[in-house]
Amino acid sequence: QVQLVESGGGLVQAGGSLRLSCAASGRTLSSYAVGWFRQSPGKEREFVATISWSYGNTYYAGAVKGRFTISRDIAKNTVYLQMNSLKPEDTAVYYCATGNPFNSLLPAGYSYWGQGTQVTVSS
Length: 123
Description:
mainly beta; four-stranded antiparallel β-sheet; 11 strands
C-alpha cells in the first residue's frame, strides 16, 4: 500500500511559477511510474506528466510540454512538478498517482492517488 500526499498548490498570477510535491509513504516507489493529473470543474481528469522511477523517463501532455518539468528525488521518495509560465487554463486540482510499473497516460492505469492540491492561476 502506498500513501501519496501532494503539496505546493496555491494562487499565482499568469506567467508565474509553482512547484508541486508528491511525497510517498508506505513503500518505496522503485519499480513504479508516477503520474500527475489535473481536473477542473466539469471536466474529466486529464494527464499532465509521468516519470518512470527507475530510469527517469518522462512524458508530457502537449498543453504543458516546455512549461512543466516532472522530476523525482529517490532518497526522499518524492516526485515534483515544476510549473512555469502558468496560464489561467492551468487552473485545476492537481493529483499525483502511482502503482503502475509503466508510464501510463490514463487515470485507470494507476492504483494509488493523493488527495489533490488546488492550483489557481489568475489572469
